[in-house]
Amino acid sequence: MTNILETNDLTVTFGGLNACDHVDLAVPTGKFVGLIGPNGAGKTTFIDAITGYVPTSDGNAVFDGNDIGELKPHERAQSGLVRTFQSLELFEDLTVRDNLLVAAYPTRWYTFIADMFHLSRQDKEIEERVNWALNIMGLNDVSDSMPTDLSHGRRKLVGVARALAAKPKLILLDEPAAGLDTAESQTLGGHLREFLNHDMSVFLIDHDMGLVLSVCDFIYVLDFGKIIASGTPTEIRESAAVKAAYLGEEAGEIQVQEGERMRSQQHESGEDND
Amino acid sequence: MTDITTESSSSANGTNLVEVKNLSAGYAGVAVIRGVNIHVGKGEVVALLGPNGAGKTTTLLTTSGLLKALEGSVTVLGEPSNFSAPHKTARLGLAHVPEDRSLFFGLTVQENLRLGLRGKRSEQAAGYESALDLLPALRPLMNRRAGLLSGGEQQMLAMARALVSNPKVLLVDEMSLGLAPIIVERLLPIVRNIANETGAGVLIVEQHVHLALEVADRAYVMSHGEIVLEGAAEELKQRQDLLEASYLGGELDEETV
Amino acid sequence: MSAFLVALIAGIGAGALYAMLGSGIVVAFRGSGVINFGHGAVAGYTAYSFDELRESGSLYLPWFDPIPEFGFLQTLRINNLPVRIDIFDNVTLAEKPNLAITFIICLLMSAFLGLLMHFLVFRPLRNSPTLGKVIGSIGVFLYLSSMCAVHFGGQNRYDEGFTGFNSTSGAVKNFLGLGGTIPRSNFWLFGAAIVMCVAVWALYRYSRFGIATRAADENEKGAALLGYSPQFLAGANWVLASVTAGVAGILFLHKTQPAQIALFVVGGLGAALFGNLTSIPGATMGGLIIGMIASGGVELTTNSWWPEIIPGDGVRNFMPLLIIILVLYFRGDKLPIRGSISIGRQPRAPTSTNVIIGAIAALGIGLLLSNIFVSKWEAVLTTTIIAIVFMYSLTVLIGFLGQISLVQWTISGLAAYVMIRLMADGTKIRETDFVTNTGWGWPTVLAFIAAIAVAVIFGLLVGLPALRIRGVQLAVVTIAAVIAVESLLLRNPPLMGDGSVSVNPTPSPNWFGQYVGGFNPNTARTDYWKFSLFIIIIAGLIGVGVANLRRGQIGRRFLAIRANERAAAAAGINVANMKLLGFGISSGIAAIAGCMLAYKLPGLQTDQFEIFGGLALLAFAYLGGITTVWGAIVGGCLIAGGLLPEFLGVHFESVDTGLINAVGAIGLVVNAKVTNGEGVALLQTDLAKNTLAALRREPDETEEAEENSNNDTEEVTA
């Protein structure tokens, strides 16, 4: 089996210390992979690094067979590596449908001339894809509303739908369930597996253990920038290291001490990576 | 809500320093916490526990007036907490050590502490000395810029800055975030000390469940914006299974209770 | 070489003004997180007040009488708002009021200005998006400058101020054995800047107020949690900042005309950025450096080897821009960005659905008016339409893309001057022309297209910094660019022809054999009907283009970038290209507006494209509604010389441009607070929609609604 995404020794340094510390991780094509870890573990930093939002200091990321280290964020998105954001980060002045259309349509240099004369044509395939994304996230009835008129939960879904509309090969979901109530997060969880049927792989970050354990094929656990465990949901549920990381038991003490210096430095440099 | 004790909730009476009633709050008009009831009495240490994203920090921010309540009420020292003016709540005698510590990195340790002073000159001096007696490690660092302190020292400074104002209510958010347990073990008892000696009410949000339960009288556990578990610290310590369930996302069914 | 050194040292004089203004900008920024473009105007107003008090014994309050002494409103017999207080009696040239008392009164005036700015402008706007705050400070700039014009006539003043500061009293000769002379006052001013620097620095360093200000500046949440009211600290710092501005203004009274002091804010901004917007000593040093390199640079231009095409005044005014660009380039990402609890919402930018109907209606009304109007009113109509065309450029750049560029009106000027230079052929065009421009004698259409091309290229250059910086920083760069470009490229005879420093005569435009200029040789007025027709068509086409842009893909992308650049990149948008596209389109439209103005007038005055004009246009565009085509149309009707003020002018007999701009500035700030910059246009649209909805409602529904109204009001009050 091939991997759609592979990182080798990926390292991100803030203020001389590693927020992501030699992370080796792989997402097999067509699979659902999760990454969990407590607050400040470096999960979002990891997504920021592979999507080009923070520079990496070591290691590389290979997406779809190509090293993507030199690509800019929008080039990575265009190549099919599409992310969502933990905070809403929607285009608040555009309707829900327009939010999706922005991501779905490519731009050419002459688009603005066509626009000025109102000559741009609709692309059937793209419109269908947008409709599918609205549909799967249950946003059909609000497609002409402004995101600010929606509930927090549905706004998060707009963010996911926007990523789906961009025709991703790998979709990176950064805490899609954060801020949702239990019912909403279960609804979301029910839809996530459907993505796999549409030629894409999924990479999910969340600190809602219940959600991650129920939908993922394979899970990595990150703490203090390092992978401390990986395995199937059942293996992770039983792992002592995971419990330690979440509840702060004695078992986790060694790692915690190692990380202490690092975090204090991060605070000094004003970086808040999660 | 699962209440595993009978006597704890009975202390909700007129002597409470902080009363949070049926509180809903959040960001941009969207509720992150719903129907939260919390009270803190005199000389009491109360822990607020729960997994990441459960709404603990939101609860504290609303209590000190930094966030607006969408529904419900917050009363601090008998006065309704003023949602548009956290500085007024602070002047009532509430000290809040937020999750990010909110230190002034460009200011020296001494300047940071000076800003916390409140009251008459004699009270200021007393508060200053007693805070430094509790955290003597800060004494040699007085002229150092706060941004140059280590994480543990920063946390001590944040605590000291809250303590010099002789607070009647103290809110501490994630004191242990990014700190070695050995430092946390040193800091948490200070909280207990303040409550015992000055009669202040203390509300702490804590990651290290077991350390928190060591010093707290009572605890609330939050999950998905609601309080799912409440009880005396002693009893919660015995019910490890309930805690784990609320942290690791399992369901709290009636049978386990 | 020694002449250069002497010039460098002499630069501490102007440098001291930059330093003092820069320190004040830092103080206001630390207190409130606002970069105040109006800081120089505070200094200018105080300087004028000082001079007026010394000359006539009267103090003018910083507002105007809303009920004029003429027109129908005077019949209402309402008590007028007091504007003038006569403090000293019997002022003569020989017996001027006491210097110290005058000084103190004027500093109280500037403190009062600070309080007004805090309570009426920046406190109400504290939760507005960056655009709103920038607009607020531009409003202050425009308002106080307009008030200077209204109260003091914007005239030159001759009070010598403090003895010893007087530039004519004994120049220092042969300083440090370098030869040359330096005015003694330069050293006094330098000393004053140093004293101010030390005083403010010590206040911030040692007083609890100062420490609390620094604390709140770094972490507003932390300060509030310790019981310090951020708004109190902000207000106190506004007062302090304004007093420093007042001191600077009064001390420089003898050296610079007060009307010019407002423009020195650009050097002050450079100084403040040099101090990272936080350090008083840094700002002082930055100001002195700008003053010195500007003075030294001007000295270099007097050499024979210096290329004539770069004028000395241009070099002087380029230095603040240079410093600003260097600071932003090297430290741009480390500059403090104030963390506010709420960033606020951007103004809505709805799509226009009925573009064709709207365009036909607007064209119809325009043609109808043009047919009805004669003489003066024809000219008023074309002034309005030119303003509308210019405002379209702001709609694209600021409204859609969210990039606050203040230099667009200068780009219009650049295009107009380039076009005139290309068309001119050295012959006298009208009997009344003072100057004859030489040029390349290009045909009208070619020169028009080339001028637009030059403007677009220049606009792309301005857009380059926007790839790295955004928001208020871009506004700072572009306001500095206005001052620099005006003196470097526009008022430049070797480059733009002899007309560029006096009245620049515009050649007769011929489009396909038709004369379409506004100047009517028969009436000697600018009321030629073919020009009206021509410009109505141009404005209609551009309006349709802009509306279509908004509802097309590019419009969506612009708004996505305006809302969130990070998310836009994640959606696959090439943010850099889109921003450059926006700057290009906007500059092209601005260029057309500039060329149209040149078509209209027989000659362009040197102050035609100056900063106040550009800011006033921005103000009225914002007031009309910065995010919509309809808003630009409303805004164009509001400008001084536009349809609405001229119409009102019939009743008021005469309406001062300064007064209209002052009203516009007030409207600007109110609009920023009340409609979040959506302007009159969207208010109207909303009102129309709600009225229509109410009319369409069935009668029985209305009854229900009434029954429910009690509940509704309860919800509202809750």
Protein model, in words:
The complex is a heterotrimer of chains A (274), B (257) and C (718). Chain A is an alpha/beta fold and 274 residues long. Chain A has helices at residues 43-50, 73-78, 96-104, 111-116, 124-136, 152-165, 182-192, 209-215, 233-238, 240-247, 253-268; strands at 3-14, 17-28, 32-36, 58-63, 66-67, 81-83, 170-174, 201-205, 218-223, 226-231. In chain A, the strands form two sheets. In chain A, strands 6-7-8-3-9-10 form a six-stranded mixed beta sheet, with helices on both faces. In chain A, strands 2-1-4-5 form a four-stranded antiparallel beta sheet. The two termini of chain A are 32 Å apart. Chain B folds into two domains: 2-93 and 167-251, P-loop containing nucleotide triphosphate hydrolases (Rossmann fold), CATH 3.40.50; 97-160, no CATH class. Chain B is an alpha/beta fold and 257 residues long. Chain B has helices spanning 56-63, 86-92, 109-116, 121-134, 151-163, 181-198, 209-215, 233-238, 240-247, and strands spanning 2-3, 18-27, 30-40, 45-49, 69-76, 79-80, 94-97, 169-173, 201-205, 218-223, 226-232. The longest helix of chain B is centred in the last third of the chain and has 18 residues, at 181-198. Chain C has 718 residues and is an all-alpha fold. Chain C is 66% helix and 3% strand. The longest helix of chain C has 26 residues, at 575-600. Residues 337-343 and 700-718 of chain C have low confidence and may be disordered. The A-B interface holds A 38-40, 148, 151-152, 175, 178-182, 185, 207-211, 213, 237, 243, 246-249, 253, 256-257, 259-268, 270, 272 and B 26, 28, 30-32, 34, 51-53, 100-101, 105, 147-152, 154, 176-183, 207-211, 224-225, 243-244, 247-250.
Q: How is the secondary structure organized here?
A:
The complex is a heterotrimer of chains A (274), B (257) and C (718).
Chain A lengths: L2 E12 L2 E12 L3 E5 L6 H8 L7 E6 L2 E2 L5 H6 L2 E3 L12 H9 L6 H6 L7 H13 L15 H14 L4 E5 L7 H11 L8 E5 L3 H7 L2 E6 L2 E6 L1 H6 L1 H8 L5 H16 L6
Parallel strand pairs in A: 3-8, 3-9, 6-7, 7-8
Antiparallel strand pairs in A: 1-2, 1-4, 4-5, 9-10
Helix pairs in contact in A: 3-5, 3-6, 5-6
Chain B lengths: L1 E2 L14 E10 L2 E11 L4 E5 L6 H8 L5 E8 L2 E2 L5 H7 L1 E4 L11 H8 L4 H14 L16 H13 L5 E5 L7 H18 L2 E5 L3 H7 L2 E6 L2 E7 H6 L1 H8 L10
Parallel strand pairs in B: 1-11, 4-9, 4-10, 7-8, 8-9
Antiparallel strand pairs in B: 2-3, 2-5, 5-6, 10-11
Helix pairs in contact in B: 3-5
Chain C lengths: L1 H9 L1 H21 L6 H18 L1 E3 L23 E3 L12 H24 L7 H23 L19 E2 L7 E2 L1 H23 L1 H11 L1 H6 L4 H22 L6 H4 L3 H10 L5 H22 L10 H20 L23 H18 L3 H25 L7 H16 L20 H23 L5 H19 L2 H4 L7 E2 L4 E2 L2 E2 L13 H23 L1 H11 L1 H6 L4 H26 L2 E2 L6 H14 L4 H10 L4 H10 L4 H18 L4 H18 L2 H19 L1
Antiparallel strand pairs in C: 1-2, 3-4, 5-8, 6-7
Helix pairs in contact in C: 1-12, 2-6, 2-7, 2-9, 2-11, 2-12, 3-4, 3-5, 3-9, 4-9, 5-24, 5-27, 6-7, 6-12, 7-9, 11-12, 11-13, 11-18, 12-13, 13-18, 14-20, 15-20, 15-23, 15-25, 16-17, 16-18, 16-23, 17-23, 20-21, 21-23, 24-25, 24-27, 24-28, 25-28
